[in-house]
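Researcher: I'd like a structural prediction for the single chain below. Treat it as a standalone chain; there are no partners to consider.
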Amino acid sequence: MLENFEESVKALKDFVTSYDNYQNSLLLIEFDHTSLESLKTFTPLHPSRFEALILIGVTEGRMELQIDYKTYTADKNSLVIIMPTHIINFVNGSNDLKSWVLVISKPYFDATPYEKDKKRPPIVISYMQLQKNPLTVFEPHEYSNLYSCLDYVRHRMRQNSHIFQKDALKLALKMFFLDLGNVYLSKIEHYITPAFTRQEEVMIDFQNLLRESCTQQHDVKFYADKLCITTQYLSMILKSQSGRSTMQWIQEALMTEAKRMLKRPRTNIQQVSNELNFPDPSTFGKFFKKHAGMSPVEFRKK
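Model: Treating it as a single chain, here is the predicted structure.
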């Protein structure tokens, strides 16, 4: 789920245009340019990863964000889909921005039953397609229809007295994804799974391996060996694809995990140091201060 989800959603109520939360598993918010500055205090100012499927729709204006360190500009009638595996960083928004965000926790999404019929295409485009196409611009009528389905999801989220709210909400959510899938599959560029170059395949495999191993493995050689390539070749690929070296990727992943852990109220510095496989808290503290410009204690207080 979102990092510090329960604490974060409480802070949202004060400045978003619309706010709905179902059992800390499904969050739907809307905001405009008047809440942009306040929203920046909630959204990650540094690259972060969330255990949730995140959909961002831009109704008016423009939004800039980074997904896996690549910058995307979402204009009016755009939709961005961010998978739990992606690293996201909010960059900026225009003064006329009007947007909505649907957050579905990974456990909730995984537990939602969907029919599996191999005779028809998947409801939502695949992960491989999203790697290259996280941002889609809709026709005005497509975006309007999608928003109508989203409004129905909101309606079901607010029916707390409905005896079958849980099932009704899942059906509303399924209808939303059916309409979303219908639009995506009508666009040929999304229907056909894009071909990946060898370097792109290595980049994806490295990212998956980094997500699984970064808390325990800090050595470039470990990742190169697992990918059956040399450390030099791995760094060359990552530099070419992202502008970052292998070590920069590892350090960024460690910092993302460190910040996530430091936000946990009952976790001390010693525990974070141990979980991230540092030899001692002092070494961890020096590493953190070098990359964050402040000590772990100062970060936690801030």
